[in-house]
Amino acid sequence: MNATSEQRRSFSRRGFLGLTAAAASVPLLAACGGGSASQGGGGGAGGTVKFWDMPWATPAYNDAAKGIAEGFSGANGAKASYQIIQWNNFYQTFSSAIASKTGPAVSTGGGFQAFQFEQQGQIAYADKVIEKLKASGQFDDFLPGVLDPFKSDKGYVAVPWQLDMRVFWYRKSLFEKANVALPTDWPSLLEAGKALKKVGAFGFTTGAGAGNNYANHSMIMMMVNNGGGVWNKDGELDLMNDRNVEAMEFVLELVSNGIVDPAAVSYTTDNMSAQWKDGKAGYGLFQVNVPQRVGDTSGDLLVADPIKGPHGDKATIVFPNNIMMYTNTPSQEASEEFLVYYLGQLKQLWQKKLMSALPVFKSITEIPEFANDPNNVKIVKDWQPIAKTFAAQGSKLNANLAALDGGQALNQFSQTIITGKADAKTALQTFQSGLESVLKK
Amino acid sequence: MSSTTTQSGLARARRGIAPGGSGTVPGKRRSKLSAQATRTFFWLLLPSVVLLVLIHGYPLIYAAIQATHDGDLLQTGNFVGGQNFATVLTSPAFWKAAQFTLWFTIVGVFGSWLVGLGLALLLRTRIPAGGTFKVLLLLPWVVPIVVSSTAWNWLVATPDSLIPSLFRNLGMGTPLFLADPSLASITVMVFKVWVSFPFMMMMISAALASVDTTVYEAASMDGASRWQQFTQITLPLIARSTYISWILMTIFCVNDFPTIYLLTGGGPVNATTSLVVLAYRTVFQDFATGPGVAIAFLMTMTLVVISVILYRQIRKSSVE
Fold first, then answer.
1. Dihedral, B219, B225, B226, B232 alpha carbons, nearest 10
2. Which residues of B163-194 are buried (b: 16+ CB within 10 A; e: fewer)?
3. Cα–chain-centroid distance for residue A263?
4. Which of A275, B199, B240, B261 has the most CB atoms at less than 10 Å from its CB?
5. Position B5 confidence tier, pLDDT thresholds 50, 70, 90
6. How close B191 comes to chain A (CA, Å)?
7. Distance (Å, rounded) from C-alpha B179 to C-alpha A263?
8. Which of B158, B256, B318 to mutate to test the interface with A (most CBs of A within 10 A)?
9. How far is B1 from chain A (nearest CA, A)?
10. B residues 194..223 contacting A (CB < 8 A)
């Protein structure tokens, strides 16, 4: 028997089709959402509150958070366990675990996750937690306006614990080199951008590459900064309003003047950080703790002043990250007790300088480890009071915002704008159509 | 030497028959298994069959349910029949992604095959430090894709990256490899070829290793040129491996998520969005489970059809 006939015998049509079907079914397996629950033991874990947390910062953050969670000792002997959930496919991880009753009792997560699961009836309202915080005096410690977005008609959907704020940063030495003043409004931003370009820097640093949402945030920020936003005050989609059109026309003007890096559409956050570190970024929207993030703590990277839109509006965007409780819990009382305990211990995370976000409690903004950084102080003083959520022009968070945040429609829109591929109205119209197609009716 | 003799020699060589060999192929010998042995095989196979049904069957059925319902990841929702498929098939984004997937697959399959074939043939010759060379050539396949894509990002992403800088220094402008839609598409395809050619090279090397070198000697003695040897001996003798590698590479390309997602995220402005990236985004970013799974179903059906067509080619090449 030669090799050919032997191979043919072992390589039957049926066997081949079986193999092919198995290999070809990979996309189905990947997309069907039937992922396995990553945790077992869910709600009935004998008085142990399962707390799931995300990698919000370096691994040291998760170590510290684990220590806090496992230090919980509630009434009736309640304990807490700690589990890190990776961002990759996190919603599927939560969904499949919740569906199989193996999910957490309490968790952090996506900014609008609590509202998504509230729609499914999986969220335990936090009104009793708020009452306990009022009784302990911690309620009055919340910064102004951070709690309101979480109050629905049925109760508090979650409790905020950190503010992921977007503010303008600048490199002082580049402004000095360009001999131009810091922008205070849109026209001066345009002038500063032109001056920075002459010294080889960009005046509206952003990025829209793989996994980078900063261009998305910059677009919404500019709309909100002009008194516009994705939604109207009643929470209905309202992208085509005049303020948004005006804001996007201004960004397109920045693009056409070379103030936005032509390669920014492909930049990852690492590419963006490298621009800031290498002195290519003169001015742009970024998160809290940029010097630490990009590795330049020389004092040359500073928080800029908020800028005024052409109608006098002044605003930025903020993601109030939150902690939510689920209906599947060994004890609702234990969940609430744990949440109150955890909020009370948050200060440790900022004391250890593990966070790249603002605290939600005034008392934490006053601790030396936070307040000794003038950038932090400026953000709390000048930016936090004007910060609005993705729900702007409205104020209430809801599940629809998840479809906006990081969805295809917003990505395509921001990439279209920063490449100057369409006029403002056309780009906004496409954005609106894309969002409409995915929003819950 | 007559042309008849040459063709005869080549024809013998194509069939893998060494000079002097009879070329007779033993007839099919059907070994009849006893009934007991058949039962034993059945019981031995049963655990694998059960596992396959559980691992592949359940998700497939679940996916079919989701593709025909309007729910989300947590709740299945209402039955909507073929509405999700209609939504997908009438979406310009789907057809744009399908078009990119087609080009990505064609370039990925044939590009990596050509490079792999060339290197496999080169490695067949005696070159100094051939072993080291082989290991180095395998690196793109061996290195985790997340590392490769990060390295490529460093090489091309910004105007100051190495390759754009080289172009600039050569007076060829500063190409934005990932920011220009056309260049980004080409970059992703070149990256795919770079990542995949070692696989092709190994497949072809394995096929070439099984070829008796005396057939080349015979063909050479019959007066066949190098090109004739390549087209009349080498290619036919590696045809089965070629078709199999094409099938596998087609599946790898169509299903390739990390190469594209890590390098460009599907951008700029969807220029490099393939069907699998679109399916992922639809399910996990837009939370539109039904349409996302419908895309995956359409991909699976297409892959099965392509695979069957290529499989027929394998059978044909075997018959010849």
1. -60
2. ebeeeeeeeeebbbbbbbbebbbebbbbbbbb
3. 23
4. A275
5. very low
6. 16
7. 5
8. B158
9. 30
10. 210
Question: What sign results for the dihedral spanned by CA atoms B174, B178, B184, B186?
Answer: positive
pLDDT tens digits for range A355-370: 989 999 999 999 999 9
Inter-chain CB proximity B270 and A412 less than 8 Å: yes
Residues 170 through 199 of chain B touching chain A, CB cutoff 8 Å: 176, 178-179, 184
Tokens of residue A340, six digits: 């109150």
Q: What is the DSSP string of A367-388?
A: SHHHHTSHHHHHIIIIIGGGEE
Question: In this prediction, does ipTM exceed 0.90?
Answer: no
For the beta carbon of residue A299, count every other beta carbon within 10 angstroms.
11
pLDDT of amino acid B317 = 67
Q: Which of B53, B56, B74 to mutate to test the interface with A (most CBs of A within 10 A)?
A: B74
Residue A370: phi, psi to the nearest 5?
-100, -45
- As a whole number of Å, the CA-based R_g of chain B is 25
Q: Is B28 on the interface with A (CB under 8 A)?
A: yes
- pTM listed for this prediction: 0.82
Q: Report which of A393, A392, A435 is spatially closest to residue A410, judged by C-alpha positions.
A: A435
Angle, CA A337 vertex, CA A331 and CA A341 arms, to 5°: 145
Which chain A positions have a beta carbon within 8 Å of B303's beta carbon? 20, 23-24
Residues of chain B in contact with residue A419, where contact means CB-CB under 8 angstroms, are: 179, 268-269
Within 280-319 of B, beta carbons closer than 8 Å to A belong to 280-289, 292-293, 295-297, 299-300, 303-304, 307-308, 311, 314-315, 318
Placement of tokens 């020389």 in the chain: A298
Closest chain B residue by Cα to residue A23: B251
Residue-wise pLDDT tens digits, B224-277: 888 998 999 899 989 888 989 999 999 999 999 999 999 999 989 999 999 999
Residues of A in contact with B288 (CB under 8 A): 438
- Whether B292 and B71 have beta carbons less than 8 Å apart is answered as no
Distance of CA A305 to the CA centre of its chain: 22
Closest-CA residue to A158 (of A42, A49, A321): A321
Cis peptide bond prior to B228, omega within 30° of 0:
no
- What are A322's strand-pairing partners? A160
Residue B146 touches partner A, C-beta closer than 8 Å: no
Residue B257 forms contact with A (CB below 8 Å): yes
| DSSP secondary structure letter of residue A148 | G
